[in-house]
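1st attempt posting a full record on here, be nice pls
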Amino acid sequence: MTDRAFVTDDFAVPPHLVTPQFRLEPLGPQHNASDHAAWMSSIEHIRTTTPGFPYGNWPPAGGMTLEANLADLQRHAKDFARRRGFTYTVLDPDGGEVIGCVYIYPSRTGTHTNVHSWVRADRAHLDAPLYQAVSTWLSTQWPFTTINYHPR
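the predicted structure (as tokens):
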């Protein structure tokens, strides 16, 4: 993470991605309860099936409180507002329930873009379609040249 913007001021950050299977919108505090329920119900699934998820310590094996999750979402929203990183919640297109998350952040060296995503255990079939849709979206709508996003 750096203290500088990840994209230029003149770049219009895409506000969403919509497919028939899911929609993405910026993650924020308003998603706290649904986000918390989504990953808490899928800790083992996320830890064992999400290739390249950063650092191997998320999600925490014992979970976290709703309040701690809110602080995490506020940090992601602050990063988004400051254009330092972009976290999108993955929502069910019908009910709007959180079914996953996508994280777009610069590498520590600033030489490439790191992308990570997860889906709930009961939506595991969406992991590959999410990867495909986000990969296409990043290559056509974003200014990144080198992207590190582990294939599904």
